[in-house]
Amino acid sequence: MGFFGSKKEKRKDFPCGARIDTLINQEFCCANPECHKGFTKLLRPHFDHIDKVNTNNSPENCQALCPNCHNNKNLQENKVAAEKNRN
Ligand SMILES: [Zn+2]
């Protein structure tokens, strides 16, 4: 099970089946069309909540991003949140 993450996670997350379905749907590549890197043992998928609601663990809300794109998405979202809070 190492490929899908071996860390024990306390927070609610996508069930294993949803993760596997997502990877198959994305042909084991990053969901970002500008990236589309294939996942390997060294480039493990990060599972992301598309609607940003991290309690919504339905398979439709799951996308697999490479660590780099996941990081960029989080940075982008934090920026948007920060701009919203300023007003
Ligand atoms: Zn990527």
Tell me about this structure.
This protein is of the alpha+beta class and 87 residues long. The protein has one domain. Helix content is 34%, strand content 9%. The protein has two helices and two strands, in the order H-E-E-H. It has helices spanning 16-25, 67-86, and strands spanning 46-49, 62-65. The protein has a two-stranded antiparallel sheet with strand order 1-2. The longest helix is centred in the last third of the chain and has 20 residues, at 67-86. The chain starts with 15 loop residues before the first helix and ends with a helix. The mean pLDDT is 89. The chain binds zinc ion.
SSE pattern, N- to C-terminal: HEEH
- Low-pLDDT parts are none
Overall body shape:
globular
Spatial extent as radius of gyration: 14 Å
Total number of β-strand segments? Answer: 2
| Helix proportion | 25-40%
Write down the domain tally.
1
Biggest sheet, in brief? 2 strands, antiparallel
Number of separate helices? 2
Strand order in the largest sheet? 1-2
Percentage beta strand: 5-15%
- Tell me the structural class: alpha+beta
Mean pLDDT over the residues: 89
Q: Alpha-carbon distance between the termini?
A: 45 Å
- List the bound ligands: zinc ion
In a nutshell, what does this entry contain?
By secondary structure, the chain is an alpha+beta fold.
List the keywords:
87 residues; two-stranded antiparallel ribbon; binds zinc ion
Q: What is the fold's blueprint, element by element?
A:
Blueprint: H1 16-25, E1 46-49, E2 62-65, H2 67-86
Antiparallel strand pairs: 1-2
